[in-house]
C-alpha cells in the first residue's frame, strides 16, 4: 500500500514537472521569430531541422556533454552566419558571426543573462556575473576602478612573488616529470587573486586545494542541472536530482569565501580602518593596494547600500572567475608552447634579449614582450576560457533581417566565432603572427572576444594579461616545456568554462 502511494506521488510530481514546462511552451506557441520584410524566416537565417512541437529538443537531450560541444561546433561549420534552433517552440539564436555579436553585446536590450545561468546563481548568487539593471550598474561602477591599469603596478610585485614561488615548487617537485597542469597552474592563479583582489594571502597552496576541488565538483553538478530542464523545478530537483550533494559543496565553497572576508574584516578591525574617511588603505597594507574586497568593505562601513551578502556574492564571483579563467589561458599557453617548440624558442629568445635575470624586470619592461603577447592572444583565440555566453530577451529585438521575440535566448559561441575562416585563414592552425599589428588592421573588432566585449566586457582583462605574462616569463626562463598529452587527444565538453576531457600533461625540463 505504501509503495503504491509513493508511486502515485512520483507520477504526480512527474506530471507537475511536465506541466511546468509545457504550459509556458504553449503560451509561447504564437510568439515566433519574424523577418523585417515579412518574408520567410528560413530565407533570412538558417534553421536547424527538428521535430514538430519538440523542435531540436529530442536531438539535444540524447547527447552527453562532449557530444553536445561537438554538436554546436558542427552546426557552426554548417551555418557560419549564425543559425536558429528550437527547444519546443522556444527560439534560440546561436551567433557565430561578428556582425551579430557586435549588435548583441552592445545593446542594453540584451544585457541580461539567459535562464541557463539560473542554477549557477546558487554558486555566485547575484554578483557582477549574473546581476543586471541598476544593481549591475552600481556594482560595476564601484568595482571597476580596483582593476584599472594604473592599479596594476600595486599588484605587480604579487604577480612576481607568486610566479617565483610556483617556479620553485616545480623545480623541487615536478622538474623532468610528467605533470598535469591542472595540478599546479590553478594554485598560482588562486593564490594571486586572493592576495590581490581580496588582500588575503593564503598560507600554503594546500589551503586552496580543497576549494578548487569543491568548485570543480560543483561545476559538474551545476552544468548537469543547467542542461536538464526538469531540474529547473526545485521540487523535482530536490526529489530526483542531487540537491543534497550540491548543497554540501555549496556550503564548503561559500565557507571558504566567507573565511576570506572574515580575515580581511579582522585586518580592518585591527587597523581601525572604518574610522578614517579618506579610505586610507595604506593603514591595512604597508604597500597600498586597492583590493576589490577592501573597496566593498569600506563602502559598507561608510553607509553605502551594501550588505554582507552583497560582499559575499562578489567575492564568490571574483574568486571563481579570477582564478579559473586565467588558469585555463595559462594552461593552454603552456601546452601550445610545448606542442610548438619553434614558437617556444622564439619566446625564450625574446625573454633573454630583454634580460638574463627576470627578477629585475619592472612592470614597464613587460611591454617589450610583444611576441609573447601574440602567443597568449592566439592561445585565447583557439582556447577561449569562456567558450560561449548566453543572453535572454525581455522585449522584441531586431537583429539583421530578423526580429527575435520577447523571451528568446541568444547564445554567442565565442569558440566558433574565433574560428571564422574569413578573418582567421586556416583557423585551426596555431599562428601567433595573426596578432602582429599589421595583421589586425582590417579585422572585425568582435571576431575576437576572449574577454567578452561591449557593455558587459571583463573588467579584469588587463590584470589577467599582465598576470599571465609575468608567470610565463618566469617559467620559460627556467624551464623548457615538453608535451606529454597529444594535441589530437584534446577534446572538450560543455562546462561553465572551457573544459577538456583529458588532463593537459607536460614535462618541465630545466634549462
From TrEMBL:
Its cofactor is heme. Heme binds at residue 458. It holds the Pfam family p450. CDD domains: CYP4. The keyword DNA damage does not apply. Gene3D superfamilies: Cytochrome P450. GO terms for molecular function: heme binding; iron ion binding; monooxygenase activity; oxidoreductase activity, acting on paired donors, with incorporation or reduction of molecular oxygen. Keywords: Heme, Iron, Membrane, Metal-binding, Monooxygenase, Oxidoreductase, Transmembrane, Transmembrane helix. This is Cytochrome P450. It comes from Hermetia illucens. The lineage of its organism: Eukaryota, Metazoa, Ecdysozoa, Arthropoda, Hexapoda.
Amino acid at each position: 500500500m505504501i509503495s503504491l502511494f509513493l508511486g502515485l506521488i512520483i507520477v504526480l510530481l512527474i506530471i507537475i514537472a511536465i506541466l511546468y514546462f509545457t504550459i509556458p511552451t504553449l503560451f509561447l506557441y504564437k510568439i515566433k521569430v519574424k523577418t523585417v520584410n515579412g518574408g520567410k524566416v528560413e530565407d533570412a537565417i538558417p534553421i536547424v531541422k527538428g521535430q514538430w512541437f519538440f523542435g531540436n529538443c529530442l536531438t539535444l537531450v540524447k547527447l552527453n556533454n562532449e557530444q553536445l560541444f561537438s554538436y554546436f561546433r558542427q552546426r557552426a561549420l554548417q551555418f557560419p552566419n549564425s543559425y536558429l534552433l528550437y527547444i519546443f517552440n522556444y527560439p534560440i539564436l546561436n551567433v557565430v558571426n561578428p556582425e551579430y555579436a557586435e549588435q548583441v553585446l552592445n545593446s542594453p536590450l540584451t544585457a541580461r543573462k539567459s535562464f541557463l545561468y539560473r542554477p549557477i546563481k546558487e554558486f555566485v548568487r547575484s554578483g557582477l556575473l549574473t546581476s543586471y539593471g541598476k544593481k549591475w550598474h552600481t556594482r560595476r561602477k564601484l568595482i571597476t576602478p580596483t582593476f584599472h591599469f594604473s592599479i596594476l603596478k600595486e599588484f605587480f610585485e604579487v604577480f612576481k612573488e607568486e610566479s617565483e614561488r610556483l617556479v620553485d615548487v616545480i623545480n623541487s617537485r615536478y622538474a623532468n616529470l610528467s605533470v598535469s597542469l591542472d595540478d599546479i597552474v590553478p594554485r598560482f592563479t588562486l593564490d594571486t587573486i586572493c592576495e590581490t583582489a581580496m588582500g588575503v594571502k593564503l598560507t600554503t597552496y594546500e589551503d586552496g586545494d580543497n576549494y578548487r576541488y569543491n568548485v570543480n565538483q560543483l561545476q559538474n553538478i551545476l552544468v548537469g542541472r543547467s542542461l536538464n530542464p526538469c531540474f529547473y523545478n526545485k521540487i523535482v530537483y530536490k526529489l530526483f536530482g542531487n540537491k543534497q550533494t550540491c548543497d554540501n559543496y555549496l556550503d564548503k565553497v561559500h565557507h571558504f569565501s566567507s573565511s576570506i572576508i572574515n580575515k580581511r574584516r579582522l585586518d580592518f578591525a585591527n587597523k581601525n580602518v572604518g574610522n578614517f574617511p579618506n579610505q586610507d588603505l595604506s593603514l591595512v597594507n604597508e604597500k597600498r593596494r586597492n583590493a576589490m574586497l577592501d573597496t566593498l568593505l569600506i563602502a559598507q562601513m561608510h553607509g553605502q547600500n551594501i550588505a554582507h551578502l552583497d560582499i559575499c556574492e562578489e567575492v564568490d564571483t571574483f574568486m571563481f572567475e579570477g582564478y579559473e579563467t586565467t588558469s585555463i589561458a595559462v594552461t593552454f599557453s603552456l601546452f601550445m608552447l610545448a606542442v610548438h617548440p619553434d614558437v617556444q624558442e622564439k619566446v625564450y629568445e625574446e625573454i633573454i634579449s630583454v634580460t638574463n635575470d627576470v627578477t629585475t624586470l619592472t612592470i614597464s619592461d613587460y611591454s617589450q614582450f610583444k611576441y609573447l603577447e601574440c602567443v597568449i592572444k592566439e592561445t585565447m583565440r583557439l582556447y577561449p576560457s569562456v567558450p560561449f555566453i548566453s543572453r535572454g530577451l525581455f522585449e522584441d529585438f531586431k537583429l539583421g533581417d530578423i526580429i527575435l521575440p520577447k523571451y528568446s535566448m541568444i547564445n554567442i559561441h565565442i569558440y566558433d566565432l574565433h574560428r571564422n575562416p574569413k578573418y582567421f585563414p586556416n583557423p585551426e592552425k596555431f599562428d601567433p603572427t595573426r596578432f602582429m599589428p599589421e595583421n589586425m588592421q582590417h579585422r572585425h573588432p568582435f571576431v575576437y572576444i576572449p574577454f567578452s566585449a561591449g557593455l558587459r566586457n571583463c573588467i579584469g582583462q588587463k590584470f589577467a594579461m599582465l598576470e599571465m605574462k609575468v608567470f610565463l616569463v618566469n617559467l620559460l626562463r627556467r624551464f623548457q616545456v615538453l608535451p606529454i598529452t597529444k594535441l589530437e587527444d584534446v577534446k572538450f565538453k560543455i562546462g561553465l568554462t572551457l573544459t577538456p576531457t583529458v588532463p593537459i600533461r607536460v614535462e618541465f625540463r630545466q634549462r
